[in-house]
Amino acid sequence: VDSTNAGRVLASDAAVFLKKSGLTDLVLGKIWDLADTDGKGILNKQEFFVALRLVACAQNGLDVSLSSLNLPVPPPRFTDTSSPLLLSGTASSDLPWAVKLEDKAKYDSIFDSLNPVNGLLSGDKVKPVLLNSKLPVDILGRVWELSDIDRDGMLDRDEFAVAMFLVYCALEKEPVPMSLPAALVPPSKRKPLSVPGAMPLIPSSTKESHQSLPPVGILAAKTPLTQ
């Protein structure tokens, strides 16, 4: 939006961009008023970030207010072909995997140390590793849900890498997403898309039936681990 690198965005330019969020003018007006703190009609970088975060809050059903700024929300979505968060024109199968090669090697060595059977680890073998992170059980349950991509109650090498990636993100205080972003789906699990102009990285809601089930019994951590 700040194509000249001036360090600020004019109201007219920001309005054009923010409209691509799909929010109503009323909501966008409120977002602008909160972001443009001294009413000068321009936003500096920090104020623009506030506007983006408020857009994300509004898109995720949260209150558009300064008190929502600290809540964990996925990044805002803008319907624009040049937006980095939209893969229009590129199938998600072309998207580089978010798990870096050097990290994958590290996760693979942990995977191998857990004695996989036929290239798979059962929930019982993964559970101690997850619990070892000391993350809350509900977060670990979501990590398991997201990483068991084919829902077979086991993790293969790539799924285990996704689980480890999410655990490390959570340890860095990053929110664990409610659904797996396309960039995190391992290339081996990606389905070729039949529709042109692929799906956004951040699905707005997940209403799959399995969400009502408990997370595969893996994290019913009622028995303390003797480790």
Descriptive report:
The protein has 227 residues and is mainly α. Among the domains are: 61 residues, Orthogonal Bundle (Recoverin, domain 1), CATH 1.10.238; 89 residues, EF-hand (Recoverin, domain 1), CATH 1.10.238.10. Helices cover 37% and strands 5% of the residues. It has 7 helices and 4 strands; from the N terminus they run βααβααβααβα. A two-stranded antiparallel sheet has the order 1-2. It has a two-stranded antiparallel sheet with strand order 3-4.
SSE blueprint:
Layout: E1 8-10, H1 11-19, H2 25-35, E2 42-44, H3 45-59, H4 101-113, E3 120-122, H5 123-131, H6 137-147, E4 154-156, H7 157-171
Antiparallel strand pairs: 1-2, 3-4
Helix pairs in contact: 2-3, 4-7, 6-7
Which descriptors would you attach to this protein?
elongated; mainly alpha; two-stranded antiparallel ribbon; calcium; Recoverin, domain 1; EH_dom; 227 residues; cadherin binding; metal-binding; 4 strands; EPS15 factor
CATH homologous superfamily assignment of the domain at 101-189? EF-hand
**Cα distance spanning the termini:** 52 Å
- Poorly predicted spans: 81-91, 194-200, 202-224
Helical element count?
7
CATH architecture verdict of the domain at 101-189: Orthogonal Bundle
Structural class: mainly alpha
> What is the helix/strand order?
EHHEHHEHHEH
Question: Roughly how many Å is the radius of gyration?
Answer: 20 Å
Strand content: 5-15%
Q: Give the strand order of the largest sheet, numbering strands 1, 2, ... along the chain.
A: 1-2
Number of strands: 4
| Residue-averaged pLDDT | 80
Helix content: 25-40%
Overall geometry comes to elongated
CATH-defined topology of the domain at 101-189:
Recoverin, domain 1
CATH class of the domain at 101-189: Mainly Alpha
What profile does the largest beta sheet have?
2 strands, antiparallel
